[in-house]
Write a structure and sequence with these properties.
The protein is α/β, with parallel strands linked by helices and 188 residues long. 45% of the residues lie in helices and 22% in strands. It is built from 7 helices and 9 strands. A 5-stranded parallel beta sheet has the order 2-7-1-8-9, with helices on both faces. A 4-stranded mixed beta sheet has the order 4-3-6-5.
Length: 188
């Protein structure tokens, strides 16, 4: 059995990663989303174990010390990380795995697993990104400013990714990602 392919998907908060990935998953079989662990609190509607593993700061630090994470980082005052075992198990079963992680974590994964394919999802513009963040209605002005500042730094590093996809239209962006994945799958 062929080993699955690991896809690293990054992009600034508010660029539409989750929406684009939902559309990608509608068009692909044998692909799984890796659930990350985080110390941030759940947003309305998020489910523990499905959207994230919501853990305490102490538990997350224990996981770091026990080398139970494929990558981890601190982002806007919270920890995020990818539990190692579930990813390795899915890949060994021949399934493709998608990691939705930020730039720092993506670099850690690429160092540990250079065969991983990295894709960066860009917003059409910083103005559109700000409109989307404000449209959520879930964050303070300070958080929005922090996220926009972080977005500028992340976009500046997007050139190190294997592929860059602009999310100006969800279906078009998802279609572009599906085509990239199909080409890579054929090469394996």
């Amino acid at each position: 059995m062929k080993k699955g392919k690991l896809y690293i998907i990054s992009g600034p908060s508010g660029c539409g990663k989750s929406t684009v990935l939902r559309e990608v998953f509608r068009h692909r079989r044998n692909i799984f989303f890796s659930v990350s662990a985080t110390t941030r609190g759940p947003r309305e509607g998020e489910v523990d174990g499905k959207d994230y593993y919501f853990v305490t700061r102490e538990e997350f630090e224990r996981m770091i010390g026990a080398d139970e994470l494929l990558e981890h980082a601190q982002y806007v005052s919270n920890y995020y990380g990818t539990p190692r075992k579930p990813v390795e198990a899915m890949l060994s079963e021949g399934n493709d795995v998608v990691l939705d992680i930020e730039v720092q974590g993506a670099g850690q994964v690429k160092t540990k697993m250079p065969e991983a394919v990295s894709l960066f999802i860009l917003p059409p513009s910083l103005e559109e990104l700000e409109r989307r963040l404000r449209g959520r209605g879930t964050e303070t002005e300070e958080k929005i400013r922090s996220r926009l500042s972080q977005a500028e730094r992340e976009i500046a590093k997007s050139g190190s990714y294997d592929y860059r996809v602009v999310n100006d239209d969800v279906e078009r962006a998802a279609g572009e990602i599906v085509q990239i994945m199909r080409r890579i799958r054929r090469r394996k």
